[in-house]
């Protein structure tokens, strides 16, 4: 059986994690796992972890590590026979360590995008809150202005995406991401991509993954269930 491939994509808010992971999932047939989507699904389904997570998100806080790991690790254990790409997790060193003890990552993509670019993109980002689908009025506009392509429901702009919130979010990202990036660098699996346009970064990611994904197709690996 082909060896499985597990990757994580990291980057500050607006760096293109969602956009690029969609492309990777389509091009390479990996399952895209988004921690934001998991949280939204759990909130919609009223699970215990979802109810708990909602109390933090409503206050604009990050969901604590133990809640995030409780949400995500069982989902990863269901994925033992799939290749996947994770977006939005780990977001702290503790989450990275929990992931580490669950499975071996093959590769980490880190996006390094200038502040001005992030600010412009986020000021133009519109989302469909129920699904997490993301639009940008210049880059990937919806078919009908202000409406989600699939459901036709209204799109919103998140308060968090306003320029005044961005500085604090970015500072927070830099602080918490640094030890995670150092950890992945020390494991030799970190690949950093810098630039201002997704379409210019994409060919580099595409060619890196084209070399990594087929060359790993030898044996099977599994995520080990957490005790
Ligand atoms: N590991 C994670 C992932 C998500 N969240 C919470 O879930 C929300 C939605 O996550 P996501 O869809 O990843 O969106 P953003 O945080 O807005 O991420 P970005 O701007 O980077 O796309 C976050 O704001 C945060 O409150 C969290 O606490 N911890
Ligand atoms: N103008 C422009 N917008 C982009 C580009 N790449 C992504 N976007 C948009 O920028 C916003 C942030 O991208 P997203 O994938 O949500 O980033 P994430 O927060 O890291 O997941 C979204 O509205 C995207 O549609 C780009 O190259 N140029």
Automatic annotation (TrEMBL):
The primary location reported for this protein is mitochondrion
Q: Which GO terms describe its cellular component?
A: mitochondrial matrix
Q: Which ranges carry the Adenylate kinase active site lid domain?
A: 125-160
Q: Where is this region: LID?
A: 124-161
Region forming the signal peptide: none
Where is AMP bound in this sequence?
A: 35, 40, 61-63, 88-91, 95, 169
Which amino acid positions bind a ribonucleoside 5'-triphosphate, per UniProt?
14-19, 125, 134-135, 198
The UniProt entry, under Pfam families, shows: ADK, ADK_lid
Query: Molecular function terms in GO for this entry?
Result: AMP kinase activity; ATP binding; GTP binding; nucleoside diphosphate kinase activity; nucleoside triphosphate adenylate kinase activity
Q: Where is this region: NMPbind?
A: 34-63
Q: Which UniProt keywords apply?
A: Acetylation, ATP-binding, GTP-binding, Kinase, Mitochondrion, Nucleotide-binding, Transferase
Q: Where in the cell is it found?
A: Mitochondrion matrix
Keyword Transferase applies: yes
Q: Record's superkingdom?
A: Eukaryota
E.C. number, please?
A: 2.7.4.10, 2.7.4.6
Q: Name one GO biological process term.
A: ATP metabolic process
Q: Which reaction does it catalyse?
A: CDP + GTP = CTP + GDP; UDP + ATP = UTP + ADP; GTP + AMP = GDP + ADP; AMP + ATP = 2 ADP
Domain description = Consists of three domains, a large central CORE domain and two small peripheral domains, NMPbind and LID, which undergo movements during catalysis. The LID domain closes over the site of phosphoryl transfer upon GTP/ATP binding. Assembling and dissambling the active center during each catalytic cycle provides an effective means to prevent GTP/ATP hydrolysis.
Q: By its UniProt entry, which NCBIfam families does this protein fall under?
A: adk
Please give the PANTHER family that the UniProt record associates with this protein.
Answer: NUCLEOTIDE KINASE
Q: What does this protein do?
A: Broad-specificity mitochondrial nucleoside phosphate kinase involved in cellular nucleotide homeostasis by catalyzing nucleoside-phosphate interconversions. Similar to other adenylate kinases, preferentially catalyzes the phosphorylation of the nucleoside monophosphate AMP with ATP as phosphate donor to produce ADP. Phosphorylates only AMP when using GTP as phosphate donor. In vitro, can also catalyze the phosphorylation of CMP, dAMP and dCMP and use GTP as an alternate phosphate donor.
The family line of this record is: Belongs to the adenylate kinase family. AK3 subfamily.
* Subunit composition and interactions: Monomer.
Q: What is this protein called?
A: Adenylate kinase 4, mitochondrial
Tell me which species this is from.
Answer: Salmo salar (Atlantic salmon)
């Amino acid at each position: 059986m082909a060896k499985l491939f597990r990757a994580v994509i990291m980057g500050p808010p607006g760096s293109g994690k969602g956009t690029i992971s969609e492309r990777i999932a389509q091009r390479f047939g990996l399952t895209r796992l988004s921690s934001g989507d998991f949280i939204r699904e759990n909130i919609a389904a009223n699970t215990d972890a979802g109810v708990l997570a909602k109390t933090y998100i409503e206050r604009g806080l990050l969901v604590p590590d133990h809640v995030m790991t409780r949400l995500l690790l069982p989902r990863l254990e269901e994925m033992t026979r799939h290749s996947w790409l994770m977006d939005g997790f780990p977001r702290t060193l503790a989450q990275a360590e929990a992931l580490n003890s669950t499975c071996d990552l093959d590769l980490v993509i880190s996006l390094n995008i200038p502040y001005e670019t992030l600010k412009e993109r986020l000021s133009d980002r519109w989302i469909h809150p129920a699904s997490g689908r993301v639009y940008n009025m210049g880059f990937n506009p919806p078919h009908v202005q202000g409406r989600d392509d699939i459901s036709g429901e209204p799109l919103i702009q998140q308060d968090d995406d306003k320029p005044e919130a961005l500085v604090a979010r970015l500072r927070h990202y830099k602080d918490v991401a640094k030890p995670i990036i150092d950890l992945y660098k020390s494991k030799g699996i970190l690949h950093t991509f810098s630039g201002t346009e997704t379409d210019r970064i994409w060919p580099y990611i595409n060619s890196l993954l084209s070399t990594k994904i087929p060359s790993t197709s030898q044996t099977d690996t599994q995520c080990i269930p957490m005790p």
